Amino acid sequence: MAKKHLIIGCGSAALSALEKIRSIAPDDQVKLVTMEDCPPYSPTALPYLLSGRVSEEALWMRPDGYFDDMKATLAKGKEMAKVLPASKEVVYQGGEREGYDTLLIATGSEPIHPPIEGLEEAGFIGFRSFSDYRSLAGRLAGKKRVAVLGGGLIGMEVAIALLEKGHQTHIVEKESRLLPLYFDAGAEGLIREVFESEGAGLHTGTEATGVSKKNGAIILGLSDGNSLEADLLVTAVGVKAKTAFLASSGVKVNRGIVVDGAMRTTVTDIYAAGDVAEAPGFFDETGLNPILPSAVAQGRAAGAAMAGQPEPYEGWLPMNVFNFFGRMAFSVGLSMAQGGNFEVITASDRKAKSYRKLVLRDGRLVGAMFLNVSADPGVFVYLVRKRLDIGAYQRSLLEKPREVGRYLMTANEKKEATVIE
Ligand SMILES: Cc1cc2nc3c(=O)[nH]c(=O)nc-3n(C[C@H](O)[C@H](O)[C@H](O)COP(=O)(O)OP(=O)(O)OC[C@H]3O[C@@H](n4cnc5c(N)ncnc54)[C@H](O)[C@@H]3O)c2cc1C
């Protein structure tokens, strides 16, 4: 009998689940529900929209008519408030109820608002959704000086857009390095130089301790004793899984919704995928991994299981690509690992502003980081996921990552094809 699959959310995880369900169960009913009133989009494009590099049309992830073609329905502007597993229903804001056979929670993440004295009163904007983009774009008019709290990926991408638009931009990051989760000191030093040369004010190793207003300007007190004046404040200090609606549902939530390798939660017929899910990792650990490739892969795994044909999920792998002022940096896998039985090889060229790093364990590539070097992040994801022994190729892979990476990948593909034959 045809099932009813209810998907809460309409981001990358939700769409990839829909596409997987449809490929397995052409006659099942699939309904997606989003609290937003716009077409499905990926937040990764929002900084480009802010800078004016892309137009609004480029934001939408699927063409008009997509949901009809997929024989699915999309309900916009509906916010799920509660899940009732005993009756297999969800409750929306306003009290309306809806039943399901399987339920996927793909509600993503929401910004963390730092508990800083005076922040609410002074006014600030987070940057996570299309409506955040709209309010930031609207409030930027006539504002010259912008302070960004948080030097992680989102804060840095917003800062790039602001600098490109000609705003005097300051970034405040409590850790000693920018992008502390993704790049080590060798790479960060070069990223820092580029940002400084683009006019960014960088305040690392210091925290905002209080916010006040004076003559219309926002005054940010910093823990190093200095203060910063701005016309607008953007906060980007991190995100948390969006799970408040699960209180008293019985679905286990740690930092995110706990799921197994088929994206099953602790309650039968309820699944979770994407930023909201705490899923198994490639290197054995379980946790959140709020990045686009993980949302897509987890959505696919959830869709397969919901349609009754679970597929193996390889586990999430850290993977971050950072494009800045015509340059590209990326890190993959255990790129920060050191000590123990990790072997780390690096090379940097200050003049070319480039940085290279490979991390190996027992001769196998487990992590990589490159900045301003011709290399393909997707190939490095492949090499790490295949746990390839690259012993003899270490140096050449470091020096010619694009060519040698592709060679290793192709050679392995041929080997695997021969074994299958
Ligand atoms: C500015 C920015 C830049 C980024 N850059 C990168 C990058 O360069 N690389 C990268 O890999 N990742 C990046 N990310 C992260 C990436 O966008 C996310 O990992 C990805 O979008 C997660 O997809 P998702 O489907 O889990 O959630 P989302 O895409 O956030 O979708 C969540 C959906 O749930 C809906 N929803 C939420 N709560 C409810 C509710 N209660 N009821 C109904 N609907 C609800 C929302 O409306 C939305 O449709 C960036 C994120 C931001 C904000």
Descriptors:
421 residues; alpha/beta; FAD/NAD(P)-binding domain; Enolase-like, domain 1; 3 domains; five-stranded parallel β-sheet; 11 helices; 26 strands; globular; binds flavin-adenine dinucleotide
Descriptive notes:
- There is one protein chain.
- 27% of the residues lie in helices and 29% in strands.
- With 421 residues, the chain is of the alpha/beta class.
- The longest helix is centred in the last third of the chain and has 20 residues, at 401-420.
- The chain is globular.
- The model has no long low-confidence stretch (mean pLDDT 96).
- It binds flavin-adenine dinucleotide.
- Flavin-adenine dinucleotide is lined by residues 8-14, 33-36, 42-44, 46-47, 79-80, 106-108, 127-128, 153-154, 157, 242, 245, 274-275, 290-293, 295.
- The site of flavin-adenine dinucleotide (FAD) has 35 residues, from helix 1, helix 2, helix 6 and helix 8.
Number of domains: 3
Strand percentage: 25-35%
Mean pLDDT score, rounded? Answer: 96
Q: Looking at this structure, what is the CATH superfamily of the largest domain?
A: FAD/NAD(P)-binding domain
Alpha carbon gap, first and last residue: 38 Å
- Give the overall shape: globular
CATH class of the largest domain: Alpha Beta
Put simply, the count of helices is 11
Classify the secondary structure makeup into a structural class. Answer: alpha/beta
Alpha carbon gyration radius: 23 Å
CATH architecture of the largest domain: 3-Layer(bba) Sandwich
Q: Low-confidence parts lasting 5 or more residues at pLDDT below 50?
A: none
What multimeric state do the chains show? single chain
Helix content: 25-40%
Number of strands: 26
Sheet of most strands:
5 strands, parallel
Within the largest sheet, what's the order of strands? Answer: 3-2-1-7-19
Name every ligand kind in the structure. flavin-adenine dinucleotide
CATH topology descriptor of the largest domain: FAD/NAD(P)-binding domain
